[in-house]
Amino acid sequence: MRENATLDEDEEEAATSPRGGFESSGKKREEEEEKMKTRTTLEEKEALRDILQAMERSLLMEGGGGGEQQQQLVGKMKKRKEHKFWSTQPVPQFEIEEEEGEDEEVKEEGKGGKEDAGTAGEDDENEGDLDDGDGPIDDPSKTAANVRKEGYDLPPGYEWDEVDVETQEGRDEVFTLLANNYVEDDDVMFRFAYAPEFVSWALQPPGYEKSWHVGIRISCTKTLVALITGIPAEVSANGKRLKVAEINFLCVHKKLRRKNFAPVLIREVTRRINLKDVWQAAYTAGVVLPKPCAKARYWHRSINVKKLVDIRFTQLGRGMSMAETIEHYAMPKKIRVQGLRKMEAKDVPTVTRLLNSYFSKFKLAPVKNEEDVRHWLVPRDEVVYSYVKIDERTNEATDFCSFYNLSSTVIQASSGGSNAKRNNVLLKAAYCYYNVATSENIEDLVQDALILAGDNGFDVFNALNVSENAQFLETLKFGIGDGDLHYYLYNWKLKETLAPKDVALVLL
Q1: Are the C-beta atoms of 199 and 209 separated by less than 8 Å?
Q2: What 3-state DSSP class applies to 221?
Q3: How many CA atoms are closer than 13 Å to the CA of 289, on its beta-carbon side?
Q4: Which pLDDT score, from 0 to 100, does residue 319 have?
Q5: Of 294, 290, 268, the residue nearest 83 (C-alpha)
Q6: Is 477 exposed, middle or buried (0-12, 13-18, 19+ CB in 10 A)?
């Protein structure tokens, strides 16, 4: 990752504007005019956001119609909106058709604000036309010695901090920030609830760097108000093994969103990762940024049907009663795969071999050593669940399934029924992790995972349509979700966009 990214002019203005207080009388009118310009700019951005959302809703209501020109317009507007910051980054860029007058606008957007290191011209050179092969986008000769040693500037009253998730206090701080400000659905009905135990598991893998857990605090109160994290990992991209940072938990307190902390958080974690001589990163997002290397879709399998309907996660099928819906999603009481059992620490070597053999079939996949498997897949109560079948003759793992617990807080319950006014209701969701079936049918293996999830109190089982998951999604009565998950590689270009079946990488 590159450490010399810059804020665009609007972001730079917001980051350096006064936080309050009286201005000198000689500058009062001038400052008021500047504040009005700032407010107008923010209002224009909000109006653009509203227009985009309205156009997207119109397209969805028309079944994806609305005309090819309208769809292209929405796409171009989104790309322009996000171009200013990401055009300074070593990521593949969208190819935007040049129309009359548009080429000049795109060039202006690419300039950004003041450079901390390098110039806009150098960025253009680094991100210019690449050959058709895979490879880094930024200058591969860079070393940690080229990286700035000081952190990026923050507005007065805020300071950088390394969030210490080794302590209960640190884990609780992360939990509180994420619980109140992190990802929620478009209808503001559900928000991810990352338990402290999950935070510890997600942020302390083998070889983790404390300095990659980057927080912003209010100086006077030390309150944590923004976060971004990275953890070390290794991935295989079209057969090329890359040391990467997996980026997660980019979160800014809701009341501080207009301070544009997100770009400076990205630059700061990039700088710290570069100091450890790591130059690539992997991350996922529900939004389209420049430029996805793959796209997947979540599918959902109901387990506790009555609860899911009551909290409006799902609804009854047309003409179906609650009893009929419960019967439709009913599962066997016992698992089908003979010999499938809970994974133990002693299984780590053989599970590692099984997984890496399986991952080698895919174009984008993790690379795991035994330490990784021990951390990520040995079962932890209420965090990760793994099951394995061992061949008694060879003592080798032949089949494996796993899922992790990522619950959501129910922000708005049903308008009627017993849960209408209940607070702190949790949607307990199992997320499909890694499945390998060599001696068993994958449908049987995953159906057993569904049964085991139900036995452990989960309400729903979620799975991406990546790797070989498409083989069981429909037959096991998964329903397709309403949003895409986009995969990104930072400072690495793939010659082609990957299909979901080419991807085995699962990021939390």
Answers
A1: no
A2: coil
A3: 19
A4: 86
A5: 290
A6: middle
Q: What is the pLDDT of residue 315?
A: 86
Please tell me the distance from the alpha carbon of residue 56 to that of residue 81, in angstroms, as a whole number.
15
Enter the tokens of residue 38.
Answer: 């700032």
- Dihedral angle over CA of 79, 85, 88, 94, nearest 10: -10
> What are the residues whose beta carbons fall under 8 Å from the beta carbon of 126, sequence distance 6 or more?
2, 90, 137, 138, 139
The candidate with the shortest Cα–Cα distance to 432, out of 387, 395, 475, is 387
The secondary structure of 254-307 as a DSSP string is GGGGGG-HHHHHHHHHHHHHHHTT--EEEEEESS--S--SEEEEEEEEESSHHH
> What pLDDT does residue 75 have?
55
Q: In the prediction, which pLDDT does 37 show?
A: 42
Name residues whose C-beta falls within 8 Å of residue 160's C-beta, 6 or more positions apart in sequence.
151, 154, 214, 215, 216, 217, 268
Contact 467, 362 (CB under 8 A): yes
pTM: 0.78
Q: Which two tokens stand for residue 349?
A: 């070597």
Q: Which single residue is written with the structure tokens 């619950």?
A: 407
Active-site position among 256, 426, 507, 508: 508
Q: What phi and psi values does residue 159 have, to the nearest 5 degrees?
A: -145, 155
CA 141 – CA 355 distance, rounded (Å)? 33
Instruction: Name the nearest CA neighbour of 288 among 46, 81, 66.
Output: 81
Determine the pLDDT at residue 150.
96
The two tokens of residue 53 are: 């959302």
**CA nearest neighbour of 412 among 189, 181, 179:** 189
Which candidate, 127, 135, 138, places its Cα nearest to that of 95? 127
Please report which helix (H) or strand (E) contains residue 371, including its range: helix 370-377
Q: Which pLDDT belongs to residue 451?
A: 98
How many residues does this entry show for the chain?
A: 508
Is 178 a catalytic site residue? no
Question: Measured between alpha carbons, how far is 154 from 216 in angstroms, rounded to an integer?
Answer: 9
Complete edge-to-edge strand list for the sheet that includes strand 426-427: 190-192, 408-410, 426-427
Residue 228 token pair? 């971004």
Q: Are 406 and 360 in contact (CB under 8 A)?
A: no
- Which residues of the chain are modeled with pLDDT < 70? 1-83, 96-132, 184-188, 412-424
β 384-390/341-342 pair status: antiparallel
**Pairing of β 213-218 and β 158-162:** antiparallel
Distance CA 394, CA 391 (A): 6
Q: 203: which strand partners?
A: none
The whole-number pLDDT of residue 342 equals 98
Side-chain-side CA neighbours of residue 435 (13 Å): 26
- Specify the 3-state DSSP secondary structure of 323: helix
Cα distances (Å, whole numbers) of residue 451 to 146, 317, 401 = 53, 23, 12
